[in-house]
Each structure stands twice: as structure tokens, then as C-alpha cells.
Amino acid sequence: MTRTVISIEPDIKQWLDTRAAQEGVPMTELVRRAVRLLQEQERGQFDSILQQTKGIWQNGDGLSYQEKSRQEW
Questions:
Q1: Cα three-residue angle 15-40-32, rounded to 5 degrees
Q2: What HEC string does 33-64 produce?
Q3: How far apart are CA 41 and CA 47, in angstroms?
Q4: Is residue 1 part of a domain?
Q5: Does 47 fall in a domain?
Q6: Contact criterion met (CB below 8 Å) for 29 and 20
Q7: pLDDT at 6
Q8: Range of the domain at 23
Q9: Does 50 reside within a domain?
Q10: Residue 21 to residue 27: CA distance in whole angstroms
Q11: Pick from 6, 26, 7: which is nearest to 16 by CA?
């Protein structure tokens, strides 16, 4: 694992310390969980966008179209 230093507001630090004590885990574990959750949410949004746009191109083979367009450059 890589160590990093962050600056946070005192009220957030207090909340993290309180929550960590309640859960019986280090405060750093809560931060790691939060970052992972954010990463998963963003990945989920990206996957959702891919699903929503899947099959949107209806004009034949997309690769052929790209190659033809690039020849014009």
C-alpha cells in the first residue's frame, strides 16, 4: 500500500475518529472504504453509459467507417 497525506477539516476528522471507534477499525480504513466506494460508483456510471449507448451506431461496420474517415485526413 502507498501512504499519502491529506488535509481535512477538523469536523470531518472528528466524525471519522468517532465512526472508526464505533466500528472498531482505524480511521484510515474508513477513508480507504470511502475511496473504494467512490471508485466503484464512477465505474458503475461508466458501465451504465456503455450499456445505454450500446448498439447506437446503425450504419454498418464501425471499423470500416473509421478507416474510411481517416483516409480523408
A1: 35
A2: HHHHHHHHHHHHHHHHHHHHHCCCCCCCCHHH
A3: 10
A4: no
A5: yes
A6: yes
A7: 93
A8: 7-54
A9: yes
A10: 8
A11: 26
Q: How many domains does the chain have?
A: 1
How high is the pLDDT of residue 57?
Answer: 84
- Give residue 53's identity as a one-letter amino acid code: T
The four Cα atoms 69, 70, 71, 73 give a dihedral, to 10 degrees, of: 100
Which cell goes with 12?
Answer: 470531518
Tens-digit pLDDT profile for residues 5-63: 999 999 999 999 999 999 999 999 999 999 999 998 988 888 888 888 888 888 888 88
C-alpha cell at 32: 480507504
Q: How does residue 73 score in pLDDT terms, banded at 50, 70 and 90?
A: confident
**0.70 surpassed by pTM:** no
* Residue 35 within any structural domain of the chain: yes
